[in-house]
Amino acid sequence: MTALTETFFQNYEQFKNPELNHRRFKHTKVVELLNKLPFEKVSLGKSFEGRDIQKVIIGNGPKKILLWSQMHGNEATATMALFDIFNFFQNTSGEFLEIKKLFESKLELHFIPMLNPDGAERFIRRTAQGIDMNRDAVALKCPESEILKNQVLTLTPEFSFNLHDQNIRYSAGASNKQATISFLATAYNEAREWNENRTKAAQVIAKMNADLQAFIPNAIGRFSDEFEPRAFGDNIQKWGSSLILIESGGYPNDTEKQFIRKLNFVAILSALESIALESYTSYSIENYSAIVQNEKYLFDLKIKNLTVEAPKGNFEIDLGVNLEEKNNSDASDFSVTSVIEDLGDLSVFWGINEIDAEGGLLKSIETYPSIKETYKQYGPFPLEILEGEKASFVIDKGNELILIINGRIIEK
């Protein structure tokens, strides 16, 4: 980790945009914030429903870099980080003047903070047409896809940053650690070969990984690089720009991804420094490949050694529970619903939260009238605990009851 990266991390709060403190902001908020910026702004066109898609341009250096966020409307972590970066470039502190001058003289930065405003309005992955834009690089059925392809082909950026969120249940390798940040230098052909463009992307990623390991050790993943012929990342790599994919995953007690937003801020500025100075060239494909691959080894809640009573004899199981966010009517907030994802031998998996239920019996809430009455809004409660059901039940340890209500552990 460089001293500058540590400085970015330690001084982050002075750059954080206080008007963005949760993920479900709308296009109107982005437009309002963009209107306050002193930088050059360009309207790139309209979304399918007519929302303006804008770009911010900073710097006049020879190296062009294109960055975009919210290609998927419900992946807003990096959008928040981009507005923090805009604050960084407006900061007048002497401590950062030299690095800002470096960026502005060496780089020409093109930021698209919200590429899919119609999806953001609904806080959904897809566009208003119901299309996954990241599978529309060839067919170009979405106007938003045409805008992005036109930017890549017109600007011919040396580097492109494709900024996403991923499921918080991805693990960093086969481990109990959430993959808080994941990277990918996308493949440009089926054989997943390495050319100069892809190699440069891997080198910059290796630099970001080295820096972020100081803050989230062993919680960084490398996304699978199978070639996807319809995807923007793979095609942009093929079109000649070094494509860097950054995925924001999960971090303990960070539902609104505010700490992960900070990590995006640090990682992107670290990458820009390495590109401006060309210091990324000291890293290798081997450094990149050493990052453990993303895996799916996590449940939101794993309960081990849970005893199930049965007429022909009791038996033990593990139980894996996941939580899913459900948007409210205008997608400004959400509720959480649980599902029993799997049960049986789950010894090869971990839980973001875990309970060892050794000696505890799995019981329906129906058998505890007072508990049923207290939590009736989460009912009805099935007599059998089955895969696909909501996770509301009791673990009865005789002198202790552990309540699981809609996938949450309730203290008693």
Question: Can you offer a commentary on this structure?
Answer:
The chain is of the alpha/beta class. 28% of the residues lie in helices and 27% in strands. It has helices spanning 3-10, 27-35, 77-90, 97-106, 117-122, 143-155, 196-212, 232-239, 258-277, 285-289, 369-374, and strands spanning 40-46, 52-58, 63-69, 107-112, 159-165, 171-172, 181-185, 220-222, 242-248, 294-295, 298-308, 315-327, 334-344, 350-356, 361-363, 393-396, 401-405, 408-410. The strands form 4 sheets. It has an 8-stranded mixed sheet with strand order 1-2-4-3-5-9-7-8, with helices on both faces. Helix 1 runs antiparallel to helix 9 and helix 3 crosses helix 9. The two termini are 45 Å apart. 45% of the residues are buried. The model has no long low-confidence stretch (mean pLDDT 96).
